[in-house]
Amino acid sequence: MTTPNPFMEGISDAVGFVGGALTGYWAGQWLGLNIFSAGYDNASIGGILLVGLGGGAGLHLARYWRSKQKAKDADTDAS
Q1: Alpha-carbon distance 65 to 12, whole Å?
Q2: Residue 32: phi, psi to the nearest 5?
Q3: Distance of CA 61 to CAs 36, 67, 78, Å?
Q4: 4-18, pLDDT tens digit by residue?
Q5: What whole-number distance in Å separates Cα of residue 35 and Cα of residue 45?
Q6: CB 66 within 8 A of CB 12
Q7: Helices marked H in the chain — which ranges?
Q8: Count of C-beta atoms within a 10 Å radius of residue 59
Q9: Of 59, 55, 46, which is closest to residue 24 (Cα–Cα)?
Q10: Count of CB atoms within 10 A of residue 45's CB?
């Protein structure tokens, strides 16, 4: 059984979150939703929502990838 590497967990979480948030930001820009517009109009709120959802999805994807890597390493160690 291997011990978790906190550095790899932190880096993969950060890359997943930032990558997902950027993807959400770019999707919002493509849809015409500017998170930096003056005031909190519907377009701004929608863009902020996409950035938040993208960041959460990216973090979830990074943790899923890490669990698959851990399972693959466990299979390799068992053989």
Answers
A1: 9
A2: 85, 20
A3: 27, 10, 26
A4: 788 989 999 999 999
A5: 7
A6: yes
A7: 6-31, 42-78
A8: 20
A9: 55
A10: 13
The token pair that represents 70 in the structure block: 């851990």
Residue 42 identity: N
Q: Which two tokens stand for residue 18?
A: 């930032």
Cα-based angle 64, 66, 72 (whole degrees, multiple of 5): 105
Token pair belonging to 72: 């693959």
Secondary structure class of 1 (helix, strand, coil): coil
Instruction: Give the residue extent of every domain in the chain.
Output: 12-69
- Each residue of 15-69: pLDDT tens digit? 999 999 999 999 999 999 999 988 889 999 999 999 999 999 999 999 999 999 8
Enter the pTM of the model.
0.84
